[in-house]
Amino acid sequence: MFHRALLLLLLLSALILSRVMAPAAIGATDDRSGGIDLRDAVGSPSACADRTTTPRLIPPQDSVTLPILMYHHIKQLPPKASATWRNLTVSPQAFEAQLRYLAEQGYHTIYFSELIAYFNAGASLPEKPIILTFDDGWIDHYTVVYPLLQKYCMVGTFFPPVNWVENGNGKQVISWEMIEEMSRGGMEFGSHTLNHHLLTGQTEKQIMAQLVDSKAALEQHTGKPVVVFAYPGGGHNALAVSLTAKAGYEAAVGIMAGVEQTRDDLFLLHRITVPYSDDLKTFAARIRSKRPPPFLPGSSLWPDPRSELADR
Length: 312
Hints:
This protein is α/β, with parallel strands linked by helices. The chain has helices at residues 2-21, 83-88, 92-104, 112-120, 140-151, 162-167, 176-184, 204-222, 238-246, 280-288, and strands spanning 56-57, 63-65, 68-71, 73-74, 89-90, 108-109, 125-126, 129-135, 157-159, 188-189, 228-230, 251-253, 260-262, 272-273. Helix content is 36%, strand content 13%. The strands form five sheets. Strands 3, 6, 8, 9, 10 and 14 form a six-stranded parallel β-sheet that branches. α8 crosses α9. The longest helix has 20 residues, at 2-21.
């Protein structure tokens, strides 16, 4: 009788403990996620279909309609946030809604390496291809973006300035450990220079150092070739473009608006900025438009003045 009562007591205790601990389990909502539920965010391999079985476009051409979306911060903003911050930020809830929309509409996220192979090697692309890019290596790229991309079986390309990673503490900007984990999880990384300084106005030697050293650091930590570059602030000139190719990159993006990508403009690929104000209807129209609106004049601030890492 005593043993039966003791067993019943142990079972009851275990049940209570499991209910208490449940919110702390993987996938529970936490403050870093901006209030969204990341349950089941990290999908198992069996949950995502093999991307190689996706229907393909045949044959390759010299141009392709391919939206490249540009994100920076994925976080909540206060009501009185400036136009600059509203143009550089998307809320976690809106971001997840956008991913869900892309999945429901049959878009397929791809890597820049796939776009390069399409133009240069005659490879095919999935139907309705799209590239998701995330600039500056902010911590929410790891805490919010990465698990949501996995939840929807998508991939993204991340452009962290290397010195920001080196000098950070993993609280404001992602760390090398996070980058390595994300790379193992199927994310692509491109260079955004060492310190996010504009390439225009720098000497050839200075530009090459920014290009070569950042590329080498990312390749060392990911163990993968870094084939794409993002011009900080979108700033580029003929010298910067030619040196980007000379440094070993195979493509580059700025902030020029558009959805048509061409073989001749692999180092001047177009992107679409996604602002805080977009509802799903506006977002859908933006990625379908042949002439999406440009990055808002006067709204760009590079480096971010609120980042203590900006000048390092």
